[in-house]
Design brief:
heterodimer, A: alpha+beta, MetI-like fold, 3 domains, 4-stranded antiparallel sheet, about 10% strand, B: mainly alpha, 2 domains, 16 helices, globular
């Protein structure tokens, strides 16, 4: 029996470790984006995000000292001096005076320049060029330095994407699309769901079958006909067009979810209300709608996530201009135009996913309930 | 239904309050009543929709003139007016119906019966109209468009279908879609099942579930950025900032430009969708696993079955139905996958799929006929699942 207990403890270990591995695999990609978006863009470009807590060594771009003619007299020598790290901190690990040998000298060493000056770079990145007689010339000396930088974290990337790349406007555009497109289908679907759940009429079974069928109709099917319809009706690329489109595409799921939920409500409540003389309209408004709140919330979250994250519908029914480009569209555009600028991409991606993630964690309960109602019962 | 009304009560409401009165209804009016019901329904529903919409639009134009010029404020106003218009529609059509068929007076019983025939259609009206326009009409319009040229005007017969049969990119897309269909639903379900089975056994299972479920909230395009960063490629010798290349160079291998590496790039794209969908599979399968009756598991424990045997021989056979549901749901999603391919490769390097191929012909090829044919192909691929779902739903109801 003791072997059994030992096995059980080992099994618990195996299970725990497997889950840790799974969770790591599923969260690290997102975590990498978050960390990267907060890193200094120069460090981000040359080292992996997993090294972001260690110091990194990198070659700074060559910097030019002031023109020799600007040297100031200090005792019997003429001196040019300055900072290569520009007060950002860091440690020089080597320096050089030509692009062929940028790491030729150790900090503290002195080297002679072509015009006779003596260059020293100390560990903190300060440099000093001494001339024994007043120098001439207008071309400053190029200095290459390799620095060991401490890790730097910054909100600059966010500042840049929000204020310079137009992401803030896209954020507003996405909200503009999402708010009405989430709320408007709910009421339309709720009435239809009530009729399908609690009213009897010829063709009810057929209509239900049609709605279940429409649940899986690929969106691709609707794009061209609706686009042509919008052109004919002169709706064109406008918010009203996309609100209606999202309403249409979300309706089958809304009707289906709500009908399943409403059909499960106890019949007695409705019957006693009817005995009291309430009409279907009153019963729906005063009893069914409040009782269906969990299902309404489930659908609202689905629709919100779906509309917020949608790219296809927005690309087809909205324009590409500043007033209409949504977050997903902007992200796609950035992937094309700024594919190598990871500081822009990571920060933009994070801005676009933060709202759905907050909604997700805040309202997960309803989301799970909706998923279960939508998939386990019927289709 | 209409001819045997006397015998069978037409609605749940009639069932309760006026069931005995049904026989009082005068058979002389029977002949025209069917048509009259339909006419009333259409007039009231359409009238209601039009009046509510017109009032909402008028109110909008009125308020928009005094409102500060803010996009978000506008959107909120539209939302409020939209909801108000919906309520207005349902309230006013209901009122109209009660006025035409008053439930008091001489003909009360007859009126209630008639009103109950019309009312469901008033409740369904807006939904039916919108579904008709946005999902049913396009199916037929697409078939019509598929027989026409690029602009949708000149009839060209089956030329688009002939073109499609001979197109190499189409074959590539079909093959890739087939690969996606094989791999993504299977892997998502397997990982989801694994995660569900494991997290149900540990104390911090709910936290773990939440975290595995989270990618579900991330857009396909956001996920593409996340994974493009993982697959990022730098020339050999440079420090890799993509974690995948960093790992393999750490083991001494050459870094690879993963997303250009046919045919493996297809699988690297599939990973993204698997990453997103595993959480969905896990949540549903976890609920199914919890729904398994305790007794079956206990009996197996008493018989000395080990945990693996319990899982594969006792639990798994009891949730095959749910596994099928998860599988088909992800299958449908896979057929429509578009954003990931568009963002990662845009169909280059042999990674084209049907949905992106269709988008290509719609936006870059500007050929509505050809794009419609491709859309129809996706539709046809979905059809078996649609039929299956409808059958299943009818069984459940």
């Amino acid at each position: 029996m003791s072997v059994g207990v030992g096995n059980r403890a080992a099994l618990t270990w195996v299970v725990n470790i497997s889950v840790i591995v799974l969770v790591a695999a599923w969260t690290l990609p997102t975590f990498g984006i978050l960390v990267s978006s907060l890193r200094d863009k120069d460090q981000l470009a040359i080292t992996g995000w997993w090294t972001s807590l260690t110091s990194s060594e990198r070659n700074l771009p060559a910097q030019r000292a002031p023109a020799p003619a600007e040297a100031v007299q200090d005792g019997d020598v003429w001196v040019l001096s300055g900072e290569l790290f520009e007060g950002e901190g860091g440690k020089a690990s080597s320096f050089g005076i030509s692009s062929r040998a940028p790491q030729a000298f150790e900090p503290g060493e002195t080297t002679e320049l072509r015009d006779g000056g003596m260059l020293t770079v100390d560990e903190t990145g300060g440099y000093r060029i001494e001339y024994s007689k007043q120098p001439e010339g207008t071309r400053g000396q190029r200095i290459f330095v390799t620095g060991v930088e401490p890790p730097r974290f910054t909100f600059d990337n966010y500042r840049q994407v929000l204020f310079a790349s137009g992401l803030a406007q896209s954020f507003i555009n996405t909200l503009t699309v999402t708010i009405p497109a989430t709320i408007i289908p709910i009421l339309i679907a709720a009435y239809a769901a009530y009729a399908l759940a609690w009213m009897e009429f010829p063709g009810r079974a057929l209509l239900l079958a049609v709605i279940v069928g429409l649940l899986v109709v690929p969106l691709q099917m609707s794009l061209i006909p609706i686009l042509k319809l919008y052109t004919d009706l002169d709706i064109g690329k406008s918010y009203i067009g996309i609100w209606l489109a999202h309403t249409g595409f979300g309706l089958p799921l809304a009707v289906y979810l709500l009908r399943n939920y409403m059909a499960g409500l106890p019949r007695e409540i409705m019957e006693s209300a009817r005995v009291d003389g309430a009409s279907d309209f009153d019963i729906f408004r005063k009893i069914i709608l409040p009782l269906s709140f969990p299902a309404l919330a489930s659908f609202a979250i689905f629709q919100f996530l779906w509309v917020w994250n949608d790219l296809l519908v927005a690309t087809v029914f909205l324009g590409n201009n500043e007033e209409q480009l949504v977050l997903t569209g902007r992200l796609r555009e950035l992937l094309g135009s700024r594919g190598g600028n990871w500081e822009i991409l990571t920060a933009s991606a994070f801005v676009s996913i933060i709202v759905p993630i907050c909604v997700f964690f805040g309202l997960q309960r309803y989301l799970v309930r909706g998923l279960l109602a939508g998939s386990v019962k019927g289709g | 239904m209409l001819t045997n009304e006397g015998g069978k009560a037409p609605s749940a409401q009639a069932d309760k309050s006026v069931s005995t009165a049904a026989s009082l209804h005068n058979p002389a009016t029977e002949g025209g009543s069917w048509f009259r019901t339909l006419a009333y329904t259409v007039v009231i529903a359409l009238g209601g929709i039009i009046v509510s919409a017109v009032i909402a639009v008028a109110l909008y134009s009125l308020i928009a003139t005094v409102l500060p010029d803010s996009q978000l404020l506008n959107a909120t106003l539209v939302m409020v007016l939209g909801v108000a218009a919906c309520f207005g529609y349902f309230w006013s059509t209901n009122k109209a119906l009660d006025t035409i068929y008053p439930s008091r007076g001489d003909n009360a019983t007859f009126n209630i019966l008639r009103a109950n025939e019309v009312r469901p259609w008033l409740f369904l009206g807006p939904a039916v109209v919108i579904l008709g326009i946005y999902l049913v009409y396009p199916v037929f319009n697409s078939i019509w468009l598929s027989l026409h040229g690029p602009s949708g005007n000149e009839f060209i017969g089956l030329d688009n279908y002939v073109w499609l049969a001979g197109d190499t990119t189409f074959r590539e897309s079909l093959l890739n879609n087939f690969l996606w269909l094989l791999v993504v639903p299977a892997m998502s379900t397997v990982f989801g099942l694994l995660a569900a089975a494991l997290t149900d056994r540990i104390a911090w299972g709910n936290v773990a579930k939440s975290l595995i479920f989270m990618p579900m909230a991330i857009s396909f395009i956001g996920a593409s950025v996340i994974w493009k960063f993982i697959y990022d490629y730098r020339a050999a010798g440079d420090e890799q900032i993509g974690i995948l290349n960093a790992i393999i160079t750490w083991f001494g291998a050459e870094p690879q430009a993963w997303i250009t590496l046919y045919p493996w790039n297809n699988f690297f794209l599939m990973v993204i969708l698997i990453w997103i969908q595993t959480g969905f599979a896990m949540v549903i399968l976890s609920a199914a696993l919890r729904g398994i009756p305790e007794e079956t598991v206990e009996a197996a424990v008493i018989d000395g079955a080990n945990p693996l045997q319990i899982f594969f021989k006792i639990k798994l056979p009891q949730i095959t139905g749910t596994i099928a549901v998860v599988w088909t749901t992800i299958t449908i999603l896979v057929l429509k996958v578009f954003d990931i391919v568009l963002a990662m490769t845009n169909g280059q390097w042999g990674s084209q799929v049907l949905a992106n191929f269709m988008f290509d012909w719609m936006f870059r090829g500007l050929d509505f006929g050809r794009a419609s044919v491709v859309a129809l192909v996706i539709m046809v691929l979905v059809l078996p699942i649609m039929v299956l779902n409808i059958r299943q739903a009818q069984k459940d109801m």
